[in-house]
Design goal:
52% of the residues lie in helices and 11% in strands. It has 266 residues and is mainly α. The chain is elongated, with a radius of gyration of 23 Å.
């Protein structure tokens, strides 16, 4: 497989869903682009650059998409504030250092506003950091590699609430590092208050990151609230709000429901 620059093909603009398919054709010994839908005379032909977050689009291609919420990502720095875990010489700190083969864990996760693989790894890390000494000792008997630890699934309700608090705190901290808020950026874009297209792209890019962070703040708070409910109250609340946030629905159905069914089902 060989990479290469393809004149004219590289000039096609991006659009999802894709309107073209391309490959190297051995018979004609050339690069061939085929449309996947009828395209009229004079109509622009688009290619797809793939699903990416806006900072990748901007850095690699020089543009940012206004409507890219499903693929935008933001960086969350997860740090521990458990006094027992950060105290030098404590048993919990010793166990965590042995598990992660490093000092008290602090990690950065670049995640989208959904509950897919990247976010699941972040949750796994937070669950491990939120475990009790006995839970950590049991985990140490089962696993050793730090990468595998990030795949840790739900433990119990108390652990999940602590993990959610770590994520909520990290998202709020990241939001606080911006000098402007979401409403301010939306106002700049609506009023076209920018000097050139690159400044606009920067505003669109950072706005996307802020919305991802805000989603984690809101989903964490919402999940913590739902974990206080009885199983039947939880199910009723889910039915009322189903499809309002499909990304949260996935987390609710795969994690919250399982935890509440185990601990609160009569």
């Amino acid at each position: 497989k060989t990479d290469g620059l393809v004149p004219y093909a590289d000039m096609l603009n991006h659009k999802i869903p894709r309107e073209t398919a391309w490959c190297y054709n051995d018979e004609s010994q050339g690069f061939r682009i085929t449309t996947v839908r009828p395209i009229g005379m004079g109509e622009e032909v688009f290619d797809s650059y793939g699903r990416k977050c806006n900072h990748r689009f901007f850095v690699n291609y020089g543009f940012a998409l206004d409507d890219n919420h499903e693929d935008n990502e933001a960086v969350l720095t997860i740090t521990m504030d458990d006094a027992e875990a950060v105290t030098p010489g404590s048993r919990k700190r010793h166990i965590l250092e042995a598990l992660f083969m490093s000092s008290v864990p602090e990690r950065e996760f670049q995640v989208p506003a959904n509950f897919e693989e990247k976010t699941q790894r972040m949750f796994g890390f937070c669950r491990v950091c939120s475990m009790t000494e006995n839970q950590l000792l049991m985990l140490a008997d089962e696993r050793g590699a730090a990468d595998a630890l990030e795949g840790t699934g739900p433990v119990d309700i108390a652990n999940e609430i602590k993990a959610l608090e770590m994520i909520k705190k990290a998202a709020r901290t990241a939001l606080g590092e911006f000098s402007t808020g979401i409403e301010s950026d939306e106002k700049l874009l609506k009023g076209e208050q920018y000097t050139d297209i690159n400044e606009r792209n920067c505003i669109v890019m950072r706005l996307g990151e802020k919305k991802v962070l805000q989603w984690f703040v809101e989903m964490s708070a919402r999940a913590q609230e739902m974990l206080q409910l009885s199983f039947y109250s939880f199910r009723s609340k889910c039915m009322q709000s189903m499809y309002e946030d499909r990304a949260f629905d996935v987390y609710s159905q795969t994690v919250l429901e399982a935890l509440l069914r185990t601990e609160r089902f009569p």
